[in-house]
Amino acid sequence: MIFWKFFFNNLVSQHSFNKHSESKDQLLIRNIPYKNTVINIHFNTDKQINLSELEKLCDTVGWVRRPLPKVYIAIKYSIVVISLFYKINLTKNLIGFARATSDYAFNATIWDVVVHPDFQGYGLGSALMHQLVRILRNQDINTITLFADPHVISFYHNLGFISNPDGVKGMFWYPR
Amino acid sequence: MIFWKFFFNNLVSQHSFNKHSESKDQLLIRNIPYKNTVINIHFNTDKQINLSELEKLCDTVGWVRRPLPKVYIAIKYSIVVISLFYKINLTKNLIGFARATSDYAFNATIWDVVVHPDFQGYGLGSALMHQLVRILRNQDINTITLFADPHVISFYHNLGFISNPDGVKGMFWYPR
């Protein structure tokens, strides 16, 4: 029993909500046209996100504003957050975001996928999702789920997501 | 900036994966007939679950067995786990289980809802779900989601869950 406890605790200690092994900036897509020039898009999985900048990004796609302290908690307790940005000099400009919750063992659920409208149509959404799925797979998560609005169902379908497989339905409970 | 960091960190410290404020045994339903007598069903939200007992419970409903170390991690990183049991003398006999993952802020997703077949038909599944929703609502989670197999969609519907609201669809990605 003591051995198992030690074994389990060792396993669990490999999973931390405060660190992530892959937080350095990585090149995602080169030469996206922007304002009479071309830029490179990078991504990282750093949880130290400027929440005002994230809020502005979400504004561009018309999302309802959410209390920043709750956004901070949601990021903290997501298994992965992924940010897309371009750099001008040393400044990073956030243009994409997604995150996933998980039990760190079997399932993950993806939330808050957003790409700035100025940068849509260049495959950034697909590239973002490929990275997110890859990172979750690297953490041995087998079942990756999400809830898709009608206008993005075909987008996720093209990435290999299946809607209502074997009649399984996504269901929601909201406060009345 | 320092104030906000202090404020955020204080908020986050209220959420811990190792403690839960509501882990004592509570009476759920009285006088369920069982083996020529009647028993009372209790629940708690203790994460210290006997994993072999949980595995046996899942066997009774025909679920595929899963590696116990991964089950341990999944329980550890669930925002809530809830167990149903009856007591004989001081021994607790596990007869129901459910858990939820969450970002501790906006969303929770319910997984692994199970009631032992010998105890189905007495409203225990509904009572279990009511407690789970109540606990998540007490933690200020507004959107509670799940993925329902076809034969339990009406069960969840009767509990107030809506399938595919506004055309939103649950989607799955599995390794190929």
From TrEMBL, chains A, B:
Protein name (record): GCN5-like N-acetyltransferase
Transferase is among the record's keywords? yes
What's the short name of a Pfam family annotated to this entry? Acetyltransf_1
Q: Which residues form the N-acetyltransferase domain?
A: 41-176
Q: Which molecular-function annotations from GO does this UniProt entry contain?
A: N-acetyltransferase activity
Keywords from UniProt, A to Z, are: Acyltransferase, Plastid, Transferase
Name the PANTHER family for this protein.
Answer: ACYL-COA N-ACYLTRANSFERASE, GCN5-RELATED N-ACETYLTRANSFERASE 2, CHLOROPLASTIC
Q: Which GO terms describe its cellular component?
A: cytoplasm
- Gene3D superfamilies in alphabetical order: 3.40.630.30
What SUPFAM superfamilies is this protein classified in?
Acyl-CoA N-acyltransferases (Nat)
Please give the organism. Apophlaea sinclairii
